[in-house]
Specification:
With 417 residues, the protein is α/β, with parallel strands linked by helices. It has twelve helices and 21 strands. The chain folds into two domains: 160 residues, Beta Barrel (Lyase, Ornithine Decarboxylase, Chain A, domain 1), CATH 2.40.37.10; 170 residues, Alanine racemase (TIM Barrel), CATH 3.20.20.10. Strand 12, helix 9 and strand 13 form a beta-alpha-beta unit. Helix 2 packs parallel to helix 9. Bound molecules: pyridoxal-5'-phosphate (PLP).
Length: 417
């Protein structure tokens, strides 16, 4: 789907000119397309066809409540990784009883919170955690639905910082310990085993490793079944990649067909936990050029967005497309620029060596920033969090105002005299 397009030389989000958004709300701000989110979810749903499935959107990709509400309306459940994300899903009216709680370090308070909310399942990542959950259920008399998260020791072709299913990563239970862990869980009175899960990495542009992981999990489910441990679902995790530059990620249908093929005739519900796929290309970061700065060595476009709105380049050397909001304006020479933010860090560079024809005051759109941009935002250098805007057709609405510095100060209390 073409979400952000030039119409009459001006970049639009759906039918709204980005200049109008910049004028109305100021910059920097994130601009999301509701129709693109709908399109991506429907793409995935259509791929599943008549098979039993559940989409648990990974809240950490973008947890804005308007986005969660929209995804709930589209029939999604959620994958959460903290008590805070649980509260986000609750506040958005999402169905926690169909949602899953992932993460290697769930605290006692978070486990209690999730039990009280009747969470769909805990995805347990260690024996220690299994014992902790069991002990809490002994105290409270509740039952915890549990799936074990397996580390299938599969390396994927993605950035090492977003690889999660390799042997040396902190995530999941090693393959050779899994059967024993299920046997232990099966004997616990407060635990109800409901599934098996994995999540081997993010921004996967080749579906073969994830299909191989699902094949291994499916075979494990057979061995469990032989021992009388019956599973309801297999969760393939998230990770489906998107195109940032020139990647060719699999189509949703290819990905889902591969997963079904690996599952074979087994009567398991298939869960997926997409994050980036749903929102990544449904958002841009809108920014304004503060100064063009020339030095002997370089030419910089200093913009009003920074690593505090988009951490991915600093965090994993990620590449994001950067285009001017107005195409071909008068009196601009095309040059190579490093597009940098005002934050006092050398890594605060949003794009290196970009060919742009720009001047002071121009607006730029930084692409593919619907996922892991706002949710990784921070207030370093006392920068308020950027506003978030949702576009739907020719309508636009602010879904989170710019952060309020006075509120931030008010929450900081005087020290001891
Ligand atoms: C981050 C995460 C996801 C989402 O990953 P994407 O690459 O955004 O699809 C899904 N499941 C778990 C357990 C995660 O940690």
């Amino acid at each position: 789907m073409e979400t952000f397009t030039y119409q009459g030389g001006q970049l639009h989000a759906e039918s709204v000119p980005l200049e109008e958004i910049a004028r109305t709300y100021g910059t920097p701000c994130y601009v999301y397309s509701k129709q693109a989110i709908t399109y991506n979810v429907n793409d995935l749903k259509n791929a599943f066809g008549g098979h039993p499935y559940r989409i648990c959107y990974a809240v950490k990709a973008n947890g804005n409540l308007s986005i969660l509400r929209h995804l709930k309306d589209l029939g999604c459940a959620f994958d959460i990784v903290s008590g805070g994300e649980l509260e986000r899903v609750r506040a958005a009216g999402g169905d926690l009883t169909k949602s899953v709680f992932s993460g290697v370090g769930k605290s006692e308070d978070e486990i209690r919170l999730a039990l009280d909310a009747n969470i769909g399942a805990f995805h347990v990542e260690s024996l220690g955690e299994l014992h902790r959950i069991d002990r809490i259920t002994q105290e409270t008399g509740q039952t915890a639905p549990v799936a074990l998260r397996i580390n299938p020791a599969i390396e994927v072709d993605t950035h090492p910082n977003i690889m999660t299913g390799a042997r040396e990563n902190k995530f999941g239970i090693p393959m050779e310990e899994v059967l024993q862990a299920y046997r232990v869980a099966a004997k616990m009175s407060g635990i109800r085993i409901c599934g098996i899960s994995c999540h081997i990495g993010s921004q996967l542009v080749d579906s073969r490793p994830i299909i191989e992981a699902v094949r291994q999990l499916a075979e494990l489910s057979d061995r469990l079944s032989d021992e009388g441990i019956k599973l309801e679902y297999l969760d393939a995790g998230g990770g489906l990649g998107i195109c940032y530059q020139r990647e060719h990620p699999p189509k949703a249908s290819e990905y889902v067909d591969g997963l079904w093929d690996a599952l074979g005739q087994r009567s398991l519900t298939l869960l997926v936990e997409p994050g980036r796929f749903v929102v990544g290309n449904a958002g841009i970061l809108l920014t304004q050029v503060e100064h063009i700065k020339r030095t002997d060595a370089n030419r910089f476009a200093v913009v009003d967005a920074s690593m505090t709105e988009l951490m991915r380049p600093a965090l994993y050397g990620a590449w994001h497309g950067i285009l001017p909001v107005r195409k071909e304006q008068e009196g601009r020479q095309t040059c190579l620029y490093d597009v940098v933010g005002p934050v006092c860090e050398t890594t605060d560079c949003l794009g290196r060596g970009r060919k742009l024809a720009i001047a002071d005051g121009d607006h730029l759109a930084i692409f593919s920033t619907g996922a892991y941009a706002s949710s990784l935002g921070c207030t370093y250098n006392a920068r308020p969090l950027a506003a978030e805007i949702m576009v739907d057709g020719d309508q636009h609405r602010i879904i989170r105002p710019r952060g309020d510095l006075q509120q931030m100060f008010a929450s900081e209390l005087p020290a001891l005299e």
